[in-house]
Amino acid sequence: MIRIRRALMSVTDKSGLAEFAKGVAALGVEILSTGGTAKLLRDNGVPVVEVSDYTGFPEMLDGRVKTLHPKIHGGILGRRDRPEHLEQMRAQGIEPIDLVVVNLYRFEEAVAKPGCTLEDAIEQIDIGGPTLLRAAAKNYAAVTVVVDPADYAEVLKEMKAHGNTNLATRFRLARKVFEVTSRYDAAIAQYLRDKLAC
What we know:
The chain has ten helices and five strands, in the order βαβαβαααβαααβαα. The chain has helices spanning 17-26, 35-43, 51-55, 70-77, 83-91, 107-112, 118-123, 128-138, 152-162, 167-197, and strands at 6-10, 30-33, 49-50, 99-102, 144-146. Strands 3-2-1-4-5 form a five-stranded parallel β-sheet, with helices on both faces. The N and C termini lie far apart (55 Å). The relative contact order is 0.15.
């Protein structure tokens, strides 16, 4: 079993993250992060590399573009069992990302607030988060994806015991991702249907 060496953490729900990240970092895992998540980790003494420093490309468009970069998605989606994928990754300077910890903007909470406009709602549609989650879940054979803080303890326990999670755990976590992203998209679609009806 290949050890988890690099993680990407970018979350809206930060509950339990600092403790989880400390445990992950103690295992020698490099942590990449963005914005408020990176600040939280630094403030709690967790070594972190800003995604913009890792990719060499700044966050832009008011934060709409942070993680949408080949060094991130290539690192997540590259198949470790295909020599041609590994060779292409090496040629482009893309390192594997083995653990993705992401949860999404709180769209439903945002649109439930009095005075929330359509423009406000549109800005609460997460693009990078679902993209990261779906990429990691698609490549569950090699990547552990965590969308729910309730899974931190089990993931850390397996990492401490084996350096990685087992395939059954990765499959279960990947399935949870698609359950979460499908509900998220359904909530957005319903909101937009309701707006059209007005």
